[in-house]
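The following block was generated as part of the benchmark described in Methods. Ligand: (2S)-2-hydroxybutanedioic acid.
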Amino acid sequence: MGIIFKDVLSRVDFSFIVFFTIMLHAPCSNAQNQKIITIKFSHVVAADTPKGQAAERFRQLAQQFTGGKVRVEVYPNSTLYKDKEEMEALQLGAVQLLAPALSKLGQLGVKEFEAFDLPYLFDDQAAVNRITQGEIGKELLRKLEPRGFVGLAYWDNGFKVFSANRPITNPLQLKGMRVRIQASRVIDAQMRALGALPQPMAFSETYRALRSGLVDGCENPPSNFYTQRMHEVQPFVVDTNHGYLGYAVITNQRFWEALPKDIRAALSLAMVQATEFGNKIAQSQNDDALRKIENSGVSKVTRLTEAQRAVWKIAMAPTYQQAEKRLGEVFLQRVVSTARSN
Ligand code: LMR
């Protein structure tokens, strides 16, 4: 699952395999005599999430495949940078790898990524893959290049639940509620369609805002929700599965292109394998997290029937008219027909 593009697959060629074999058998001192390249990989979620684990797998593989010439330092949980700061840091070259949510890439000037936020666009993971692994996914990553970024992979998290400090089994109950959202205009429109008051906020500030009552609710896949202990301050959770949350792994183009060709090939292969690993565990991590939230006894999880979920779908449908204005009618129709073309 997931997809790796141009600079990735095209470089996993025969010469790389020869290089890799040589590296494996080279005496250690060769690697030690060369300057070690350090890659800082910053992200905002816990280490024990699909993204956190994929980042850790990449760290290990990058070291292994470059024979120690590359050292990846992973900074989870906004320990290095918060949402907005990390984008600026990547632009400035203070960090070399990020995996922001697709919802946040509108901030880099590619608003089309917000199509991933459309409510009930995807029936399942296969529908997501039709976009990420198809032409649209490639096109979107290419749009990052004129802005100085290279998109290396799509990483999955999962489908979002809603949570609140009051019961919300019915979408009408969201009226007037202040809901923390990511900085995406499509998510903003979705909250307004429900009569809620969207409050864009960094992920790192969400727990505190929920605890203090600054906001009443939020939406996230269970893996993020549980690992930030949000269930302890949100007594009601509903498995609406109304939207998908995934990531683009991005790097600074200048940094990437300045890497020696063989190192870039080794890192590309590490990225392919880390992507496969992370995307394989994403669904089970979320299933597991939702069970843990349920078993915690502090947050009541409501599992909706298909008929109940249909009510949410109808309530959020006006988002599509708003999104058409933002993303363009032709693009929106392409996305919808591709996602639903099984
Ligand atoms: C959020 O801000 O809710 C998410 O984008 C966090 C993440 O990176 O999964």
